[in-house]
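Priority: medium. Attachment 1 of 2:
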């Protein structure tokens, strides 16, 4: 039985598509860029945004950092609450907590935003620690966030932990830290993406996720 369960936020606990895409469209408009459909921007849900902007739009690091600043103008005011909790998540977290698991948030989203989102949706009460990226970008990758969480909680035995996430970045980041990962298919990653990255388990839905977590 694992002692700590690390959860990703976007695409794992909540569906942030509306807020993230609105924030991206706001930022891209500053550069005269428009997209034909909101769905084109779903690929930005999960990965570090600066890296993804450089990859998709060919931005320089400086331009991508400026775009991120514009993104946060909208997100910090409106976008973070344009979000919904997946059905069954509060009940699953409550059950896991009642079974004495220590629940931890490990997200590439800035920690200050992650805390506000958890509090807004009344999920903060389930977590013993909230770990996220910093606004300066020095802790943006998933493995850097996980290492920060491990150090903050003083966890030396990584076999006591398991990660839950919907994208390859969650799986790869966890593996770099010596932690297994459960991939979920109700978020924004495909089965192929998660399997290729090396997910130890894959859950089709929240109910199945809860069963897997109680059995590993």
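Attachment 2 of 2:
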């Amino acid at each position: 039985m694992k002692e700590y369960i690390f959860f990703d936020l976007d695409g794992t606990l909540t569906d942030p598509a509306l807020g993230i895409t609105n924030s991206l469209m706001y930022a891209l408009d500053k550069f005269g860029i428009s997209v034909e459909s909101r769905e084109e921007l779903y690929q930005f849900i999960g990965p570090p945004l600066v890296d993804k902007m450089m990859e998709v739009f060919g931005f320089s690091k400086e331009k991508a950092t400026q775009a991120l600043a514009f993104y946060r103008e909208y997100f910090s005011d409106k976008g973070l609450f344009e979000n919904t909790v997946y059905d069954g998540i509060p009940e699953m977290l409550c059950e896991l907590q009642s079974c004495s698991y220590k629940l931890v948030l490990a997200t590439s989203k800035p920690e200050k935003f992650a805390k506000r989102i958890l509090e807004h949706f009344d999920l903060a009460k389930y977590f013993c620690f909230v770990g996220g990226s910093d606004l300066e970008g020095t802790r943006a990758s998933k493995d850097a966030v996980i290492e920060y969480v491990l150090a903050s909680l003083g966890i030396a035995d990584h076999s006591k932990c398991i990660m839950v996430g919907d994208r390859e970045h969650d799986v790869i980041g966890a593996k770099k830290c010596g932690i297994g990962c459960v991939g979920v298919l109700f978020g924004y990653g495909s089965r192929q993406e998660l399997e290729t990255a090396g997910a130890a388990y894959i859950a089709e839905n929240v109910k199945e996720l809860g069963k897997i977590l109680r059995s590993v």
